[in-house]
UniProtKB/TrEMBL annotation:
Protein name, per record: LysR family transcriptional regulator
Keywords: DNA-binding, Transcription, Transcription regulation
A Pfam family: HTH_1
Kinase among keywords: no
Organism of derivation: Vogesella fluminis
Domain HTH lysR-type: from-to ranges: 6-63
Family: Belongs to the LysR transcriptional regulatory family.
Stretches that traverse the bilayer: none
Amino acid sequence: MSRPALDVESVQAFVTIADFQSFTKAAEALGTTQGAISVRLKRLEERLGYKLIERTPRLVRLSAPGASFLNPAREFIAAHDRAMAALSCECRRFRLGIAEHVAGPEVPTLLARLNERDPALTIEVRLENSRNLLDAFDSGDLDAVIVRQEDDRRDGEDLGPEHFGWFAAPQFHQQPGKPLRVAALAPCCGVRDIAIRALASDGIEWNEVFVGGGHAAVMAAVSAGLAVAALSCRLAPADTIEVGQRMGLPELPSSRIMLHSTLTDRRSRDALRTLAAAYREHRSPRYAGAD
């Protein structure tokens, strides 16, 4: 008895829908339309004889057969991509900058998946503040950057909003009548500038008690109860709480996350598009509704 032949596009559509729990986001990641994604999935389901994705007005999820098929489907795609890469001796790379307050815990997993799909593509990642990364991008030292939007720039691809708040450890105690103890990033950091302007506009006295140690060091200082800090609401340490309202601190304005790129070759652009779709996914509530 002959087995059904699988086509790469259909299997890739299924895997991407499973990853994003969304037909719209899967289409965006693959650079196609929602209708095309639906057609590819239907073709795959018909060939296999199983319904792989359950779709309701509020939910997109794997069926039982879909859950069983997902890992083999990933292996099928990875084997295909390795085979295609083996036909090309050209090793390509691009230099990617990601702002420290943008890089979340999902980044290593995403980069590993991109490498698995395209072993001939090397992505060199640089983590720094947005201003320095944009300067490096403009000077040609980086091929693409994912950064906070700067007031003097309106170019780039909008990946969505980034919200900020005042975070501190639950045990943090601010002495009455004393300046607010603030842990801050380097002086050229845009998030630091936002926080300082907000404090100044409300006439709140403050002292920087932990300065310029990098994003991870600042978060460690906040977790230790040494100070408060203005941090991304998405990336604040799990052992801290938002204390802005309780302490009467000014509301911090939201920003936008932007992708700037000079890359033109298809495979590098495909990798960037996958990263961009993942960033949009991690900035919106999952399962907010099927599409």
